[in-house]
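Q: What structure does this chain adopt?
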Amino acid sequence: MYSNNCYLSKDNVLFNLNDFNLYELDSNISTEVKKIMSGYKNSNSELTKYFNKQQERVVDETLKILKINVNNKCNLKCKYCYASEGTYNGESKEISDNTILEVEKLIKKFKTIDTITFFGGEPMLSIKKIKNICERTRKINEDISFFMQTNGTTLSQEGIKIIKKYNIQVTLSVDGPKEINDKNRVFKNNKGTYDKIYKNFKKIENHINFIQATYCKETKMTKEEIYSVNVNQELTHVAVNF
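A:
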């Protein structure tokens, strides 16, 4: 409970990454927690009772967006990548089943949650985990919307089925037409990704609501030109983020 995985704000709101709980602390409790977070050993039973009671409380609020990092691994090797191929210089891994159970507990604590967004790494590499989360979430709240940010290169038949079943809205990463995209957005063998992205795009185009392009100094086209020819004219109605 009182490890370095806790963050205490200036307003005395404690966020515990161990159990994904939020606690509004009074001044006395906040002082004790600060001592414990700094290494002070405390066996105060009243403090334990306080947190146990708070854990049972349902937050009477709406959480707008819950973003879930389902993995930190990627199948691409983009030349401008700042995340070390999705690992962020850490170990390549995916969300555990125990963490999914903790996410389920977090969802239950809020009166409602508007949207859940899956990202990584490349979230489609953990499609079974995404399916598990969607199934559990739907049993809690049928109105939650799902979003996903993907590079569009790892779309399997199972992935298509899950996207359609749970109406997952997709943000697709592609940097423009083939000659621009394939300069930087490449597989680990340095082969361009555009052809694969476009092939997969056609399978789920009704679920794509954004195209996200990375604009860098090597890009010779303007942002407006990238927008106008992104993938092909079928996507000009889709907003592009830079």
